[in-house]
Amino acid sequence: MTKSILGIAAAVIAVLLYMSYFVVDEKHKALVLRFGDINRVVEKPGLYFKLPFADTVTMIEDRIIIWENNDRPVQDVASQVYIVDAITLARISNARLFRETLGADLLQAEARVAARLDAALRQTYGRRSFDAALSSDRAVMMREIRDQLREEADTLGIEIVDVRVRRTDLSENVLEQTYKRMESERNALAQDIRSQGEATKTRMNAETDRTYTVKLSEARKQAEIVQGQGDAERNRVFAEAFQQDPEFFSFYRSMQAYAKSLATDGTTMVLKPDSDFFRYFMGRPPGTAAPAEVPAQPVQ
User: In which element (H, E) is residue 28 found?
Assistant: First the structure.
């Protein structure tokens, strides 16, 4: 009987000891509740003790929590609709406040933060134009959204570590309108570039034609000068040769005239037989008159 009592006592003690301790690891904080009220908050990892049956322990996530908020519609200052994907990085900073406001429920915390995030996205994008929303202003926008979230999250015992906007796309209707506008702008720019190119082409052609005309005129002028100088030199040489032997010069020029006049077959010339042109064919020297014709004597 005594052994049975001792055994039961040992079992009860073991159960009490088992229910009297709990372990907190580095990934969590612990809320010790006594009859449903918060007794203490354990923030450091280790082995701790509690009152059996009176105390209960609720583990609170101590790591950074990532909440994704995708496909959020927002409008810019021109009422163009965007589709935004955002990531919120948060941590439970005040476990007591987190338990009091949200019952230590992470799903409820995510819903509250997501609702505030939607409002922050609309406010931030609603103050900007299309270009600003997709430009280097993006970092400033994310800081603004994070700061707006922090105001709400602090009252819930949650610290907003950061907010990142992963994607900002135009909605389907706006995207099509934007493509058309961009296409129109590019076509206008291309037309302007083509017009400038045509103007440059016309100017360069005109300059080329003018340069060609000027250089051709100069070349012809130089050619005529050179040709005139050559003709003068040729005439001078001929004059000197004529003065040295007038008879040979006259003979040479006559031979050139014969070659040019009789160069082709079927040449017809209407001249007197005693013309001075054929004087070298007749065997008489130039400058002498043709012999007079002797009248025929009548037959006796």
Answer: strand 28-34
Bigger pLDDT: 73 or 247?
Answer: 73
Tens-digit pLDDT profile for residues 254-299: 777 777 776 677 667 676 666 666 666 665 555 555 454 444 444 3
Torsional class of 73: left (φ above 0), alpha (ψ -120 to 50), beta (otherwise): beta
Encode 19-44: b = buried (16+ Cβ within 10 Å), e = exposed: eeebebeeebbbbbbeeeeeeeebee
Token couple for 55: 């105390």
Helix (H, G, I), strand (E, B), or coil: what is residue 291? coil
Q: By the 8 A CB rule, do 44 and 80 touch?
A: no
How far apart CA 88 and CA 221 sit, in angstroms, is 85
Q: How far apart are CA 276 and CA 282, in angstroms?
A: 9
- The upper half-sphere exposure of residue 285, i.e. CA atoms within 13 Å in the direction of its Cβ, equals 6
Model confidence over 80-105: pLDDT tens digits?
A: 788 889 999 999 999 989 988 988 88
CA proximity to 164, closest of 98, 117, 217: 117
